[in-house]
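User: My collaborator and I are trying to settle a disagreement about how two of our proteins should look. Neither of us wants to argue from intuition anymore, so we agreed to look at predicted structures for both before our next call. Could you fold the first one, then the second, and keep them clearly separated?

Assistant: That sounds like a sensible way to settle it. I'll keep them separate. The first protein:
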Amino acid sequence: MIGIDNIGTRIKYLREREALSQAAFAKKIGVSPGNVGDWESPNKKSMPGAKAIHAISCEFNVSADWILKGTNPSISEDQMHEKELLNSDESELLQLFRTLSPKDQGKIVGYMESILEKLDKEVISSNSTHGEEAATNETA
């Protein structure tokens, strides 16, 4: 994915993606800041337990699988039913979108809205042109 090859670096990635300090991250998941520091340390001082992994998964909308193995980055168990409703392209886009920071997600949403506005204007313009052609044909 993005060079996050162990649990500690994946946790740090999530924390930084949300622009959280270790203390703020720890508070969100109900552990001490020292735990987060130990998990993120290069010498892998300790690993999160099952409760912490579950809390991270729920709080940051990632699967426990991703935290543990780096696979399936953005689908938690609660989101599996949602995945079934999407085609493979939609699912892939949603996974990628969820890996973005909130700021970058906002940029994507803004870009999509501008594309939709442009398409709406094209449809309105096209309908106006067809209406004028129909009126011209009726009077001829």
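The second protein, kept apart from the first:
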Amino acid sequence: MIFYYIFLFLICCFLFYLAGGWLVNGLVKVSRLLGLREFVMAFLVMAFAASLPNLVVGISSGLRGFPELSFGDVSGNNLIALTLAVGIAAIFAKGGIPARSRMAKTTSWFVTIAALLPIFLILDGELSRLDGVLLILAFIFYIVWMFSKKERFTVNLEDNKSVSPLKFRAFFKDLMKVLLGLITFAVAAQGIVVSAKFFADQFNLSLVLIGILVTGVGSALPEMYFDVVSAKRGQTWLVLGDLMGAIIIPSTLVLGLVALLFPIHMSGLSSSSLALARIFIIVSALLFPILVKSGEEITKKEALLLLSIYIAFLIAQIFFFEIITNSGFNFLLK
């Protein structure tokens, strides 16, 4: 049974990766045909597509009665986006990832707030419906701020030309890709949630820890795929917009919707599992805007620093788990 669920999880992660590619490619082409602007496409279109795995995992886990998996999933996604995804993209990009626009610099602070807000709201052991409303309002506040001035999103990717019959056929084909990607996400999410619950029960792990270390990685695959491809093609202006949106949207809109429908309660085991991840998320979230503003780009040296933070988290998590399970501190898990 263990090998069956491992195989199921890996297959579902691959489907996430595949569907993410369909969604990103389809949405990029659709948005260009519609003449959407640079930051709107990078932040909203790609980031919304990359956040869909978090949403379907959250709704699926809530319907099955364990929405705390969603919190771990989003926490793991945030940690990966702030460290691993940015670091890998910066390494593949020629000359690092530029961050010269005022929009990117200001949004980096919204990223910090969005990543930290759920961490502090859950300190009382619950992400209530009221907390969910606050998270959704935080998302609405940022969107209103982004669209309040035209100069924040005035760069066109290309002229908005009329859609010819040939373009209409291409438009319809790309819409079908998006629809197929959404259906694949919905199916794969069921396998992710079922396998995550099995691992948690089989190895006496909290669902939050499974979310941080396992499903968070699977959910982050689409955005990592897109960021690496964009960096290699020299489209580095897309990377930051996608990564910032892939943190802000799951942390506020996705978690807010999940908490509104299925309030999240943290057990002692879940709280212990989140303790170490909380430290690394706080460090990464506070470091991110500093790196964006320093030199107006994220360099390869800074990328190595971000990668080392994630590696340090994995090592520390392994040692932390060994200590609390194999020593006299088992009471922490109760």
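Some points you might bring to the call about the second protein. The chain has a mean pLDDT of 78. The chain is about 80% helix and 0% strand.
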